[in-house]
Design goal:
about 110 residues; mainly alpha; three-stranded mixed beta sheet; 4 helices
């Protein structure tokens, strides 16, 4: 892996009813379904490994040659417009989505 310190807003729209409802509004406006919460890649990897009772630091190797000079260090969305116009709020956190993904791949 490269830079575990990048932070992004894990937009969990596939797990939220808001995304599906916005597609049925009949409007051509664009909406961002975001949590307004940033999580580092490090916290995402840690969450995944904790779900299977492993310490990711024993398995993840940082290779500086994979670092991209144009990586966005912090990225987040502001969900206010979707909340105001559609009355929709993100319902699922990054940790919940991570747990669902890990559980799915483990066959739970």
């Amino acid at each position: 892996m490269s830079n575990l310190n990048i932070s992004i807003d894990h937009q969990t729209y596939f797990y939220n009813t808001g995304y599906r409802e916005a597609m049925n509004v009949g409007s051509y406006d664009s909406y961002i379904f975001a949590t307004f919460e940033t999580n580092t890649l490090d916290s995402f990897v840690e969450c995944c490994s904790n779900r299977v009772n492993l310490d990711y630091r024993e398995f993840v190797v940082i290779d500086k040659s994979f670092v991209r000079t144009n990586d966005i260090i912090k990225n987040f969305g502001i969900p206010e417009r979707a909340e105001k116009d559609l009355g929709l709020m993100v319902e699922v956190t990054m940790r919940q989505v991570t747990n669902m993904l890990v559980d799915y791949h483990r066959g739970y």
